[in-house]
Structure formats: C-alpha cells, structure tokens
Design goal:
single chain; about 220 residues; alpha/beta; Rossmann fold; six-stranded mixed sheet; 7 helices; binds adenosine-5'-triphosphate; binds magnesium ion; ATP hydrolysis activity; AAA+_ATPase; ABC transporter ATP-binding protein; nucleotide-binding
Length: about 220
C-alpha cells in the first residue's frame, strides 16, 4: 500500500507568487488496483502524482510505501527506488530530442547497468501493440504528439515496473489508441501491478477500482 499522510505542497512558499497546490491530502492507495485522480485543470493532480513518484518533495506530510516512510530519505535513495520500481508517464512527454523512438525507450536502461538488448523483444511487442512499430527508428522531432505519447508509454513500461504512474496518458491519442492503452492498463492490473492515473478520460475512469476527485488542492471524494 502507498499511504499519503497530510500531504501539503506550497510552491514559492512565503513569496508573493505563493501557490498552495495541495492541502492536507490523506489517501491509502491499494496495491494491484487502478486508482484514478481526477479534477479540474490546476487542482494539483500532476503535483500529487510527482510526490507519489518521489520526483517532488512535499512541503509537509509523508509518503509511506508498504509501511516505510520514504519522505526524508536521500535523493540518491529516491532515484534508485524510482528506477527500480516506478514507471512514470509524464504529462509533458519528455522524450530526448535528437534520438529515435527506440533509443528513447532503451537508453535509460544503460544508466541502470542493464543490457538494452535483453529488452528488445518487449519493446517491439509494446510498440507493435500500440501501432507505432513502424516509427521505431524515427527521430522524436518527426513524430506526432500522439506517437510521442505512445513511445513515452513504452519507455515507462519497458522494465515491467511494480508501480505505474501515468499523468494524462491518453490526452494526445485517438479513440482507438486510447482503448489499447486502457486494455494494457487492465492487463497490467491483472498481473498485480499498482497503477495510478491522473485523467479526465471518462473511459479510463470507468476501468478504475478507486476514483479520487480533487478541487483546487483538496480531496472531495
Ligand atoms: N513549479 C511550479 N511553481 C509554481 N506553481 C506551480 C508549479 N507547478 C504547478 N503549480 C501550480 O500548482 C497548481 C497545481 O498544478 P498541477 O500541475 O498539479 O495541476 P493539474 O491538476 O495537474 O492541472 P492540469 O489538469 O492542467 O494538468 C496550479 O495552480 C499550478 O499553477
Ligand atoms: Mg497536470
């Protein structure tokens, strides 16, 4: 279980441009389920997902993974934990320009001392399932937004992580691709993965086991 205790995030604290992005959020996220975070633009979904993914540190409060309070751990520990356990799909896709799709998927594996060749079959299978196999050797700049989103999706899943955190994973894709992404999410859940998705997509909300609705930094239901 991932437990969030009294999470508050204040950007630019004490300055005139201070923003209270999250206020006193408490949640218990179950393993092996699909949890959806939803709510209007600016309500704090990306902020919360980044805190759960140990990319961002909360101003106050604790993040507890399976009973272990990881909030105060070092950046080194957090980076290692993230690499080994979390696949993060960013809202702003974040692929490396100048590299092709396949390189974007496989290059991060080098930094984890893994042999990318061992992951080639899985990369091909996911690219094919998402109908972007024929784009594998295309440079990022030559891909459409929806194609880039699918590549980022494969990159996040390549290591078969235990936790999958996806920030609006279907905003740039068409309905058909959206369905493929939903199916993949359900397959991952059936294999025991823990999935947390920020989304407005009603179809994704339908497949969720738990839905949390936010309004401007607060949890409403
Ligand atoms: N780095 C930052 N510095 C200052 N304020 C920020 C920063 N990032 C986000 N905010 C503010 O915090 C609030 C929550 O932002 P966040 O990106 O978490 O919202 P969101 O729910 O993901 O929105 P969207 O649906 O548009 O992606 C917003 O008011 C935003 O302007
Ligand atoms: Mg967002």
């Amino acid at each position: 279980m991932i437990e969030l205790r009294n999470i508050t995030k204040i950007y630019n604290k004490g300055k005139p441009n201070e923003v209270i992005a999250l206020k006193d959020i408490n949640m218990k996220i179950k393993e092996g389920k699909i949890t959806v975070l939803t709510g209007p633009s600016g309500c704090g979904k990306t902020t919360l997902l980044s805190i759960i993914g140990l990319i961002l540190t909360p101003t106050y409060g604790d993040v507890i993974y399976n009973g272990e309070n990881v909030t105060k751990y070092s950046d080194y520990w957090k980076t290692k934990f993230r690499r080994e356990n979390i696949g993060f799909i960013f809202q702003h896709i974040n692929l490396l320009p100048g590299y092709n799709a396949l390189e974007n998927i496989l290059l991060p594996l080098y930094s984890m001392d893994l042999n990318p060749m061992d992951y080639m079959d899985r990369a091909m299978e996911l690219l094919s399932r998402l109908k972007v196999l024929e784009r594998a050797k295309h440079k990022v700049e030559q891909l459409s937004g929806g194609e880039q989103q699918r590549i980022a999706f494969v990159r996040a899943l390549i290591k078969d992580p235990k936790y999958i955190l996806a920030d609006e994973p279907t905003v740039f894709v068409d309905e058909e691709t959206s369905h493929i992404i939903h199916d993949i999410m359900e397959d991952l859940r059936d294999r025991g993965k823990t999935i947390i998705i920020s989304t407005h997509d009603p179809e994704l909300i339908k497949i969720a086991d738990e839905v949390y609705r936010f309004t401007y930094g607060r949890l409403i239901t």
